[in-house]
Design goal:
Radius of gyration: 13 Å
CATH topology: Alpha-Beta Plaits
Number of helices: 4
Structural class: alpha+beta
Number of domains: 1
Shape: globular
Strand order of the largest sheet: 2-3-1-4
Strand content: 25-35%
CATH class: Alpha Beta
Length: about 100
Amino acid sequence: MPAYAVFIRDEPPHDPAGLATYQKMNSESVSAYLAHGIKPIVVYGAIEALEGIAPDGAIILQFPSMADAKAWYESPEYQNALQYRLKAANYRAFLMEGL
């Protein structure tokens, strides 16, 4: 059953340079993405709020399973990059199973 990692940024980053470092580290670890079967579904596309306030940005990544999603999130490659994102911007992140 596919699983999805959802990242929601409610406001602009307070450290754009730190976020750029995070994004660069992620793009350099393509092999880690491929190893976990990641398929980007949404990456900061246009947002139109239907209810509530629109977030500043959102990302949805598809994985083959919840186990694959957790393995990617807990991988050393992602954890090394994550520290920059956590310092640069406030996100909500969660994993969910699909149908």
